[in-house]
Amino acid sequence: MDKELRDLTRAEEQIMQVLWDLKEAFVKEIIAQLPEPKPAYNTVSTIVRILETKGFIGHTAFGKSHQYHPAISKEEYKNFAADKLLNGYFENSVESMFSFFVKKEKLDITEADEIIKLIEKMKNK
User: Fold this and answer.
1) Does some domain include residue 4?
2) Domain stop point among 51, 70, 89
3) How many domains does the chain have?
4) Which Gene3D superfamilies does this chain map to (predicted)?
5) Do 88 and 118 sit in the same domain of this protein?
6) Other Cβ atoms closer than 10 A to 42
């Protein structure tokens, strides 16, 4: 991607989550997937146009209507958001971030076991 990724607002991220799930959608289809209370059509349409300007989505024209699709994968944005979190709040230390989640009890024993397995895999490479 030639555009630099930028933060998404909560509303933009919510619409991107819908588009990542649906792969492509018209504004009415996006609205149908959003929780109650449903935002107005014009509101969603405006956010979609902003996302397109930011380079996050593209569209295919069908006469006067447009079907939108993600131009950025969920994985690309996940990498951007994780890097921002790691660099911005944990001084680029995975250990510091991991320790934070352990202290906040955001990690259960099953997840910890999976992480240990991943670490063991890394050691054996």
Assistant:
1) no
2) 70
3) 2
4) Penicillinase repressor domain, Winged helix-like DNA-binding domain superfamily/Winged helix DNA-binding domain
5) yes
6) 9
Instruction: Give 121 or 24, the one with higher predicted confidence.
Output: 24
82 and 47 share one domain: no
What share of residues in the chain are helix, strand, coil (percent, to 5)?
A: 60, 10, 30
- Whether the CB-CB separation of 48 and 30 falls below 8 Å is answered with yes
Q: Is the pLDDT of residue 3 over 80?
A: no
Give the separation between CA 14 and CA 8, rounded to whole angstroms.
9
Q: What is this structure's pTM?
A: 0.79
- In this structure, what token pair is assigned to residue 40? 């107005």
Phi, psi (degrees; rounded to nearest 5) at 26: -85, 160
State whether 24 and 62 are in the same domain.
yes
What does the pLDDT look like over 29-86, one tens digit per residue? 999 999 999 999 999 999 999 999 999 999 999 999 999 999 999 999 999 988 888 8
Residues 47, 15 contacting (CB under 8 angstroms): yes
Cα dist. 91→37, 96, 97 in Å? 39, 8, 9
The rounded distance, in Å, linking the Cα atoms of 97 and 86 is 7
